[in-house]
Design brief:
The protein is built from eleven helices and no strands. By secondary structure, the chain is mainly α. It has one domain: Hypothetical protein af1432 (Orthogonal Bundle), CATH 1.10.3210. 41% of the residues are buried.
Length: 181
């Protein structure tokens, strides 16, 4: 599956523009993580872009989140590794591969970074640095929906939290216009 095909699927299945921006952010983070870890950038980005494809349909039935995406993607040429990462990111299945673990950690870090950017005086991602995000990370009430333990799971990939925040921030800064930040 090409990125263009994946993006078309996202536009067909996801109605919320902020959710689409989130999916683009996770795609960017997954691409940077793949480069950092020496993995297949295209496959990792595909997992990031498609990870919430079924969210509109499963928002009220979280147990099906990821599983409906698997059904949608069945007729497309997508690796089993990408599908496994998508199915495991909500926590329904064990995360065994590096891609599984990366997607699990990448999902909430994007929300934390967006919240940090919106709190920054300029409200621009380009002006946010790793230290600023790290300070927000330590504030439990700040972006409370961004699960800190899930973000810290980056350490299972051998990536220190500070480095993970920096990699993620750099990735999102690279698409700041698409994200509207």
């Amino acid at each position: 599956m090409t990125r263009e095909e994946a993006l078309d699927l996202v536009k067909q299945h996801v109605s919320n523009k902020n959710l689409i921006k989130h999916m683009l952010a996770v795609e960017a983070v997954m691409g940077q993580l793949a480069l950092y870890l020496g993995e297949d950038e295209n496959q990792w980005k595909l997992a990031g872009l498609l990870h919430d494809l079924d969210y509109d349909k499963t928002v009220d039935d979280f147990a099906k989140h990821g599983l409906m995406t698997e059904k949608i993607l069945k007729s497309y040429d997508i690796s089993e590794a990408v599908i496994q990462a998508i199915k495991s990111h909500p926590g329904h299945f064990p995360r065994t591969s590096r891609m599984d673990k990366a997607l699990y950690a990448a999902d909430p870090i994007t929300g934390l970074i967006v919240a940090a950017a919106l709190m920054h005086p300029t409200k621009k991602l380009k002006n946010v640095d790793t230290d600023f995000v790290e300070r927000r990370f330590k504030e439990k009430r700040f972006a409370a929906g961004a699960d800190r333990d899930q973000i810290k799971s980056c350490e299972t990939l051998g990536i220190a939290l500070s480095d993970f925040i920096g990699i993620s921030l750099k990735a999102m800064q690279s698409i700041d216009r698409e994200l509207g930040l």
